From TrEMBL:
It holds the Pfam family ABC_tran. Belongs to the ABC transporter superfamily. PROSITE patterns: ABC_TRANSPORTER_2 (PS50893). GO terms for molecular function: ATP binding. Keywords: ATP-binding, Nucleotide-binding, Transport. Residues 22-262 form the ABC transporter domain. This is ATP-binding cassette domain-containing protein. InterPro entries: AAA+_ATPase, ABC_transporter-like_ATP-bd, ECF_ABC_transporter_ATP-bd, P-loop_NTPase. SUPFAM superfamilies: P-loop containing nucleoside triphosphate hydrolases. It comes from Enorma phocaeensis.
Length: 278
């Protein structure tokens, strides 16, 4: 059999299952004639965690959409995005492996449905159960297990529209757990939450990270970066500003440079915080 360069490279990349979870090379996204993201090189290993940090409009969401294949990079002979070594993974494989929690999804929760239905919909990629699908005892049990893991089993039968923002956010995490994903993407998961909501969402990220799942976090706030996340990817003006160990990059100097205003970083027991220097 004669193989193209792409197939040969995929074989190489998959030797002994050693391919990174995600691999980006010369990945460029152009919109309206403007480069909105340019990633020379980025690899994320299976089980590795990373936090993406950067100013508004820097390109963080675009970066995530490259991983989830919601946006496509400019064509290159060498494919710019690979998932587990594959340049053309099945979309269903990606969907099964990735769980995504974002404020955007939160905004879509505008239906009067019991929480358990919202959670179980995660098995089908729908918000509630699809019309033709009946709630079987097995699906119900899995939904309840997911809610229990999030510590919110008692709200299973509540109308989702009556929940607090923090409870909805946790219910959406439970929904993502229905497919037992190996990667969890949290896109600004604490936006709009009070300190209690933030506490629970960050605690949930810790639980999932400690289970060996990769956590990819997009945030504006170092406070969200749980101690389990050791690597940060700083994005500024549509490209990678820095990529490396958290303890080297989460400094007052680097944050000041990244955001363009005087900032100070404090650290305590592996947790970071950011404040303005006036
Ligand atoms: N379809 C499009 N056409 C033109 N520009 C776009 C398009 N989509 C995104 N952009 C621009 O690309 C840039 C990167 O957007 P992106 O949403 O990735 O940034 P972000 O870092 O996630 O921002 P935020 O922190 O505000 O969520 C922004 O300047 C945005 O306006």
């Amino acid at each position: 059999m004669v193989m193209g360069t792409e197939e040969l490279n995929e074989e190489e990349a998959n030797v002994e299952g050693s391919a990174p979870l995600f691999s980006l090379r010369d990945a460029q996204v152009v919109r309206g004639g403007k480069t909105i993201l340019d990633v020379p090189s980025f690899d994320l290993a299976e089980g590795e965690h990373v936090a993406l940090l950067g100013p508004n409009g820097a390109g963080k969401s675009t970066f995530i959409q490259l991983l989830t294949r919601e946006v496509f990079p400019l064509w290159r002979e060498e494919p710019p995005v690979r998932f587990r070594g594959s340049a053309r993974p099945e979309l269903s494989d990606i969907k099964r492996s990735l769980g995504i929690v974002s404020a955007t999804m939160h905004d879509q929760v505008r239906v009067h449905l019991p929480v358990i239905d919202i959670v179980c919909g995660g098995m089908f990629g729908t918000l509630g159960l699809p019309r033709h699908v009946e709630m079987t005892p097995e699906v119900h049990r899995r939904g309840m297990d997911a809610l229990e893991r999030l510590g919110i089993a008692e709200i299973a039968d509540r109308d989702v529209m009556t929940l607090s923002t923090g409870q909805v956010r946790r219910a959406l995490v439970a929904r993502e757990l229905m497919s037992d994903p190996s990667v969890l993407i949290f896109d600004e998961p604490c936006t709009g939450l009070d300190p209690e909501g933030m506490y629970h969402v960050r605690d949930t990220m810790r639980m999932l990270a400690s289970e060996g799942r990769s956590v990819v976090l997009v945030t504006h706030y170092p406070e969200d970066i749980i101690p389990d996340i050791k690597r940060v990817l700083l994005i500024k003006e549509a490209t990678i500003f820095a990529d490396g160990p958290k303890d080297e990059l989460l400094t007052s100097e680097t944050m000041t440079e990244l955001f363009g205003v005087p900032l100070a970083v404090d650290e305590s027991h592996g947790w970071y915080s950011l404040r303005g220097r006036y």
